[in-house]
Amino acid sequence: MNALTGYLRQSGTAIRFLFLATVVLGLAYPAAVFGVGQLVAPYQANGSILRDGAGAPAASALIAQVKDDDGTQDPAWFHARPSAVGWDPASSSASNLGPNDAKLTDAVNANRAAVAEAEGVQPSDVPADAVTASGSGLDPGISPEYARLQVPRVAAAHQLGTEAVQALVDKNTSSGLAAFLGQPTVNVTALNLDVAAAGPPRS
Asked: Which of 44, 106, 183, 198 has the greatest number of C-beta atoms within 10 Å?
């Protein structure tokens, strides 16, 4: 009888602990984290969704979405950094080429020549991030220098003034704490949505 009583007492303690842990760790803690996320950083907590001019979800601010139907970057829009995976969100990866690999050197030189031709500048004027891929292949951030290089081309494609397009670049350039912890960057995905709202590309 004493053994049964002890067993029941221990079982009751275990059940009460399980109930308490379920309430605290399964309900209260997730709810608290969700609430703090909504208060402190609602934009990031809800997936960093960008919306178009009509307010409909259009893209994620965390992923470069610059690919045209043929797998290349449309000359009417701001271009992101090169991508080893063709900006495919399902295949995030780097090229894994080392700094002494001749293939990397050839790719950088080819990218530099292509960017220089597209933007009408000298190869020496092409910034490093325009010719090198990010670790994920999906990074939407480019340097302000690379964005400025593209302003005349995008402005002409959309029949907008270069000052107006540069203002959109400035609007989408990181500042404050985000820039302090790293370097100022321009979010290409958000920038192209703003350009689209300002004027459709010329056919």
From this structure: 198
Does residue 56 form part of some domain?
A: no
Give yes or no for residue 178 having a pLDDT over 60.
Answer: no
| Backbone region of residue 78 per phi and psi (left: phi > 0; alpha: psi in -120 to 50; beta: other values) | beta
Nearest to 161 by CA among 148, 150, 171, 152: 152
Give the pair of three-digit tokens for residue 89.
Answer: 């969100």
Strands 57-60, 49-51: pairing kind: antiparallel
Residue 141's DSSP bridge partners are: 187
> Are 121 and 82 in a shared domain?
yes
Banded pLDDT at 40 (limits 50, 70, 90):
low
On whether residue 7 sits in a domain, the answer given is yes
* Torsion angle, alpha carbons of 3, 6, 7, 11, to 10: 180
Phi, psi values for residue 169, rounded to 5°? -60, -45
Q: Across-strand partners of 142?
A: 186
φ, ψ for residue 50 (rounded to 5)? -100, 145
User: What's residue 173's pLDDT?
Assistant: 93
